[in-house]
Structures are given as C-alpha cells and as structure tokens.
Amino acid sequence: MKMNKTTGLIALMVGALPLTTMSVAANEPAFDYIAAQYQETRVNNTDLDGYKLALSASVTEDFFFRLSHANQSVQSFDVDLTKLGFGYKHYVQLDTVAYGGAGLVRERFKFNGISSSDSGFNVFVGARHKLAHNLELGVEAEYIDVNDDDDVVIHLQGRYWIAPTFSIVAGYSFANNDRWMLGAAFHF
C-alpha cells in the first residue's frame, strides 16, 4: 500500500511537470510573434498615417532576430522603413529581460513620383518586464543612422494578452518626431 502511494505521488508530480513548464514559459516577456500595427507620426504639424508589420523570433534561448516593414504617407509623400536586426537577450529574472542588438535599415522616400532610398544601420538596447501573466511593459532606446541623418529614438510599449497566443500592443516613440501605434500580435 505504501509503495502505491509513493508511485502515485511520483506519477502525479511527473504529470504536473509539463503544466509547470507551460506556466513558466507564459510568464516570460514576448520575443516570438508576428504583429500588425496602425501607426501615426507627427512631423512639422502634419500627421503621417500608416502600418507596420513585424516578425520577432528566438534563434536560441539567448539570441533572437527581428524583421519589420513600416509604411506611412500623407497626400503625395510616402516613406517606407525596413529593418532587419539580431540581438542578445539576458533574463535578469524569469519575468524581466534586458536585451540589445544591431541591424540593417533601408529607408525609401517618394514625393510626387520622385523616389529616393538609402541604407544604414541601427543599434538598440531595451528591457521588458511581465507585470502579470497577461501584461508586459517595455522600454527601448534605438540609435538609427540612415540617409545622412542619425536619431536616437525612445520606444515605450505595453502588451496585453487576451488569449495565450494573441495580444494587443500599444506604444509611443519619441525623438525628433512623435509616433504612437496600436496593433495586435500572434505569438508562437
């Protein structure tokens, strides 16, 4: 009888192990997602409206890559910004991660049918913290050098999970121009 209780207890603990692992993984900040966002940038008292598509994926436990494409326009002015970056993430705690990385940037302007494009680079450093199982806050500083111009941009972001694989994202970025965005992400 004693042997059956011990065996039953061990079986229960082993059976509960995957559930523990799932809840731990759910408490980590998000690095594996596909997102679509609406964004608006204020430039010289003019609002540029557009979208941003983003992909972020872990390559290993410590390294990740991210790819994004944004388009914004107003009347006959149109700008595209594409970024490809690689980064390193370090878990300070299970629910807090610091990260940094670098990447390539491609920017294209189009005005009245005349187009101009240039390439450059960016460097970024940030932190994300999971306040609760469904709420994450993040801050990132990014240096961008493209088109004979350089900027330091501060990104603030909040993410709210409405399902285990789906979240709503809101953010605000500021540098020379202010930008806000609202979107959704699918997590894998």
Automatic annotation (TrEMBL):
Keyword ATP-binding listed: no
Residue ranges of domain Outer membrane protein beta-barrel in the record: 12-173
Keyword Signal: yes
Protein name: Outer membrane protein beta-barrel domain-containing protein
Protein species of origin: Aliidiomarina haloalkalitolerans
Superkingdom of origin organism: Bacteria
Signal peptide (UniProt feature, chain positions): 1-26
Keywords, ordered alphabetically: Signal
